[in-house]
């Protein structure tokens, strides 16, 4: 079964200076990116959110995202770091069957 049908689950976040609206939009971008990246062999990738279709609409188009797939205690985890100026958001997530 394709991992596109899995659901990204947020396990932990560390927010530094992101607004609630930015936080919600960034978490949605993280979930979307995890699902797309899970279908590839990539272990680490960098993204500029201005390339995302709805980023400008939600005010997150200036953020960058570094995301890495890691094996932790037999579980595949996704570690993401969003950055823009002094704003940072660190996210850890997993994929589960929907």
Please describe what this structure looks like:
The radius of gyration is 13 Å and the shape is globular. It is built from 2 helices and 5 strands. The mean pLDDT is 93. The protein has a 5-stranded antiparallel sheet with strand order 1-5-4-3-2. With 98 residues, it is an alpha+beta fold.
Could you give a short description of this structure?
The chain has helices at residues 20-37, 55-58; strands spanning 6-16, 44-48, 64-72, 75-84, 87-97. It is an alpha+beta fold and 98 residues long.
Features:
98 residues, alpha+beta, five-stranded antiparallel beta sheet, 5 strands, globular
Topology, please?
Layout: E1 6-16, H1 20-37, E2 44-48, H2 55-58, E3 64-72, E4 75-84, E5 87-97
Antiparallel strand pairs: 1-5, 2-3, 3-4, 4-5
Question: Which shape, going by the Cα principal axes?
Answer: globular
Mean pLDDT: 93
Order of helices and strands: EHEHEEE
Total helices: the number is 2
- Return the structural class: alpha+beta
Beta-strand content estimate? over 45%
> How would a crystallographer describe the biggest sheet?
5 strands, antiparallel
Q: Which spans have pLDDT < 50 for at least 5 consecutive residues?
A: none
With strands numbered from the N-terminus, the spatial order across the biggest sheet is 1-5-4-3-2
From the alpha-carbon coordinates, what is the Rg to the nearest angstrom?
A: 13 Å
Helix content: 10-25%
Terminal-residue CA separation? 11 Å
Total beta strands: 5
């Amino acid at each position: 079964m394709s991992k596109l049908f899995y659901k990204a689950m947020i396990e932990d976040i560390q927010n530094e200076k992101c607004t609630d609206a930015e936080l919600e939009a960034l978490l949605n971008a993280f979930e979307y990116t995890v699902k797309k990246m899970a279908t590839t062999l990539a272990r680490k990738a960098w993204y500029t959110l201005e390339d995302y279709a709805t980023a400008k609409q939600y005010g997150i188009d200036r953020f960058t995202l570094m995301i890495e797939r890691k094996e932790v205690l037999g579980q595949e985890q996704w570690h993401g770091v969003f950055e823009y100026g002094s704003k940072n958001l660190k996210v850890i997530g997993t994929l589960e069957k929907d």
